[in-house]
Amino acid sequence: MSTITIKDNTGVPKYRQIISSIEEAILNGVYKRGDKLPSINSIKIRFSLSRDTVLLAYSDLKARGIIQAIPGKGYYIKSENVSTVQKIFLLFDELNAFKEDLYNSFLKNLEVGVEVDIFFHHFNYNVFSKLIYDNIGIYNSYIIMPANLRDTDRILDKLPKDRVYILDQTHQELSKYPAIYQNFKSDIIKALNDGSKLLKKYEKLILLFQQEKQPLGMLQGFKEYCELHNFEYEVIDHIDKRVPSKKEVYLIPDDRNLIRIIKKAKELKLVLIEDLGIISYNDTLLKEIVEGGITTISTDFNKMGERLAQMVMQKESIKIENTNNLIIRNSL
Predict the structure, then answer these.
(1) Nearest one of 89, 38, 105 to 67, comparing CA atoms
(2) Could you tell me which residues are beta bridge partners of residue 68?
(3) In what helix (H) or strand (E) does residue 144 lie, and over which residues does it extend?
(4) What is the pTM of this model?
(5) 222 vs 37, 283, 299, CA distance in Å?
(6) Count of helix runs (H) and strand runs (E) in the chain
(7) What DSSP state is assigned to residue 275?
(8) Which band of pLDDT confidence, cut at 50, 70 and 90, is reported for residue 296?
(9) Biggest alpha carbon distance in the chain?
(10) Which residues pair with 280 in a beta bridge?
């Protein structure tokens, strides 16, 4: 018990003194990984503290990954790295090139001493739920990319409201949380309007829309644009058996199917711009180069990552819409 030191009238909150005592004991080698800490009740009784004061100290150390709670046994040293100021839980739907840009920008703009653990739910509700439940109370902040999964609010309600941030897509039931998001409906309408002059030489717009992955707003905006401009259109969920024809424009949200449509066009000797148009989603360096450049509808993922880091570090409770733009290249 001598590892914990608490003094009155120092101006330092007592829960902070508990944290400092444990950190100092780790730095001095008194505590090593796997060692058991004094129980909450024993500290409470010895120093005449409230249970909440001791629990606040242990919760802070737990959120930083320094200690862990083992049910029925107590608290143990998990890491000797006391320099960790914050630990962040980051849950993506999947990893691809543009999300890697977002992730790297986010890491680059965090303060020193902040650690980030990244997870992926792959559009699976059960995986999403398990990852959240398994990590309740372990992190200082939770950044969640819910994608188009339904009823995620029921799971996120288990987390402290002031620690949750929503990324990329948000839904009405998640409106109570701060967010950096894309408005997929208005963004696709704006992008197609910006490209209207180029689209006039084509006869049909085709959207590849996979409901389990793509945001509903994308589909709604696509249909609204086509109907408003009397454009013939089609929505498909697979491209494998599709045979591209002249005067068609394909909107392809994912990179794998982008490569497939380019391959099909080559096999059919269809020439981009002259015979076939392609618009991809989410700009990458590769899309600047492939086939002389692929037209994209894209947001600035580096800016999104930078602003997200600022929001989390400053604990801002706001909503920010990250706008998309049409980047015109040789595929349209």
Answers:
(1) 38
(2) 76
(3) strand 141-144
(4) 0.80
(5) 58, 19, 17
(6) 12, 14
(7) T
(8) very high
(9) 82
(10) 252, 296
